[in-house]
What does this fold into?
Amino acid sequence: MNSMNEWPRGQWLRLWSALPATLVRATARQLAERYEVEDLELAQSGLGLMPLSDSALGETYFIGEVPLARSQVRLASPAQGPVEGAATLVDDRIGLVRDLAILDAAVSARLPGHESAVELLEQGATVVAESDHQRRALLAATRVDFALLGTAEEDDDE
Amino acid sequence: MNDPMTLEAPRDVRMGVWQPPRQQRAFRGLLTAFSYPGRVVRLADDGESATLLLLATLTDGASRLADPERRLAEDDIRRLGVRSSAVESADFVLCGAAHPPQMTPRLGSLENPEQGATLVIQVPALEEGIKLRLTGPGVEEEQTLRVAGVDPAWWRLRDEWNAHFPLGVDLILASERAVAVLPRTTRLTVEGVH
Amino acid sequence: MGYVAIKGGGRAIAGAEAAMEALRCAEGEAGTPLTLAAIEQQLRLLTSRVVSEGGLYHPRLAALAIKQMQGDTLEAAFALRAYRSTKPRLLDLPVQETRQMRLIRRISSAFKDIPGGQMLGPTTDYALRLMRLDLADESPEAFRSVSRRFLDGVADNDLPDSYPKVVDALREEGLLPPLTRSREAAFDITRDPLVFPVPRSAALATMARAETGSLLAIAYSNMRGYGDVHPTIAELRVGYLPVVLPHPVTGEPIEAGEVLVTECEVVAMYEGADSDGPPTFTLGYGACFGHNEVKAISMAILDRALQKGMRDGPANPSEDPEFVLLHVDGVDSMGFASHYKMPHYVTFQSDMDRLRTTQGKADAAQSSQGVES
Amino acid sequence: MNVGYELPLDDAAYSFGFLDEYAKREVRRTILKAICIPGYQTPYASREMPMGRGFGTGGLQVTLSLIGEGDTLKVIDQGADDSVNAVNLRHFVELTCPGIDTTERTTEASLIQSRHRIPEVALSESQVMILQVPYPDPLVVVEPSEARRKVMHGEADYSRLLTKLYEDIVQFDEITISHRYPTRINDHYVIDPSPIPRYDVPRLDNSPALILLGAGREKKIYAVPPYTRAEPLAFDDVPFRIEDFRDAQGKRRPCARCGATDSFLDELIDDDGNKQWQCSDSDYCHSRLAERDTIPGEAMS
It folds into this structure.
């Protein structure tokens, strides 16, 4: 279960949603076959108004809206009793968010069969790492220390 | 939040008064009742409550409801998704005909008279009881309305609250199935009283 | 030909739609339809503009709108706004913290060196505006290899996930006013009409989804002299802001997604201590969805100008909240400008009636005075 | 968006009436308050509609909050059902409100949305008239600040507006307001009745039908309830006058198509540059022609 500790629940959605929805769907289907899924709240999509704290004066304001999809489910597990899971995603795919809620429930309670969902976490992590690398590269390749400009090290400018 | 999609209640209550098409029909009934003061409009079908239906049609998380006499079931208040509030700060006040509220409801301001409250008064019966003679906008010549079980103090208070147009309150008299409306602009005389 | 009643309107509208579509696809055999991913990636700055002016961070829908509206940013942003009207508010998000942004660009024009370092990131600031003719017939193979080669060329040295803010450093030095974590709830411009005076949060929200060109024009008037902000950019950052909300079951914070944001703080000259504290620099703040630096900078300058106007009363247009905030929304202004294209012949008939009547009276008056006309 | 994101095309369908239910509920609350305070510009959070501000988004939000199964909608612009904007709005409602009917016959309609005209045929209690409003506040010409205008309206203080009218008379010996004629409702609020011609203003007075006015860009809804006094501002010596359709000889011009001498006329210029006059209300004109064809022997007046 080291992968469990490796990724706190707060990161699961990020990792899973980095993968093609079809992968998530397949795993959710398998789990749904083992455990009866009850919708505690109909999965739905809508909007959320996003408040930011302005970094100049610390005032709260709304920069705009983001799409949101959310779902909350309960898996009936004979062994462990009912297990609740949920997902809220900046996205508008109702099907996907329900699948994620099922994965969330299974992994959180480590229900038999959750291992495949943990594998998805690992796969998602590689995708996320790749995009992190891309972003870091954008910074690393353009880092500039104006304090050093004009010195021997960098005489190409001014 | 008064939206069938977000209710965690069992299927059957999601039906009926919580359904958009039903609320659209109910609103058109209310529109007639507000446009033609004193006309009795049957709002609810059998098994429905006119009061709950009109509240479901008009209120949600954006409105404040005062229910000082606890006339609504907790479940229904949750399904309505309204913010509960005190009488003096409520957009909608639900009360019985027998005793008027002790508090003065919101009357709005000169700049924002629309903030005057809407009072929903549950009456034992419409089309029987004392006779009211109505004139004003929405009434061609004169409209008569019969209503039972209303404490006369109500009419005195209504006159006080509506003394300074455009400030005032608007009344919805709701029987089990029907409603009649008295906007702040309606002039009212009670038969036999002067 | 005069003001003649439009008839056959139904046919005309259907025809107009077909005509638009015909031009969109005019390349015919030779053409390839744009994919939404291509618009979102290759026209990322156009997409950025539409998500911020549309007020909804949905790059894929923005790309669709751009394709559908054939590149018209006003119409595309408009389509995104209208889409919002069909969607319910799902939940209230907690306040997000931009210090957590995963940066791709970060500069300051106030300091040579800033804690964490300056990184130009993807920018054309220092590029020569020379036509790159090699892009004219770019081979797909070359195109596909570019990004990969760039990444392989860069050592992924251990850069931090997030960076401190320059203004925080200045603040610690006492050069800036302390954060006034205001308690009042933020103004929701999507629900409440702007009735002046409005709080600063209403101004920030309005400018965050304003039309870029409109903001720039009014900010530019301030820069040129109809105003006196004279800003220095303390920090301009572009990056991905993680959207964090509580898990519905456990309540623990979960990352629900990311939003690309441009954020800018400008420092302006201090003013005589209007508060009882010592004099400090004054600040302007700008931010918007997507990568749009001109918009963020213009907004920051106008924020500073409006703060002055709200406090001392406007001395010029860019300091007048009503003037600025009621005229920068692209959907409102574009819609109203367009509506003049609709038939107005009933009202014009009525206008002519008035003019003729008054002319008639004027003539009568003149001739009665025996004046030749 | 994420790698491999696909637009959810399956659940992209629009809900009945386009607007979400919260938006409708707010418009409905606003309409009822507008009826209770005749002529008062009731503020509401206008939503963006998929057509331009100024194209009737205010009227449309009212219509969409009212309409449901069993309704028959008529949409006109400049009096014509076939005018481009009318066609466009009608098509949009048909698209988003399955199960409702539309008509061009005034008498068949339960809801009538209009820009710039009120139909010639008298409305009935079973109908609701919805007018599209570009500029809701008649006081703007004398007071730019909305805060101050709201006070003036509340106190029914229209002295400055009357002065403005009077200055007109002094200059032109006539009130020069052509359309959007300021009209006092129930002896209190003065409204901008939308850009209807003066010819239509008397139709607001004691109408059996409810009249709702929606201003989307300015985020206001106001109402003229049924059987309510609506009186155009005027002076004893200079009365309110409707448009004059008499020719040089003082004879009322007839409609070139149906011969009507009791309708608002459009002035047309044919290809030879000759002037023609025609009913602006196309349904009125058509039905008169239809009658004439069915009743043999009736000569065209």
Q: What stands out?
A: Helices of chain A lie at 2-6, 9-17, 21-34, 94-108, 115-140. Residues 152-158 of chain A have pLDDT under 50 and may be disordered. Chain A has one domain: 2-50+62-139.
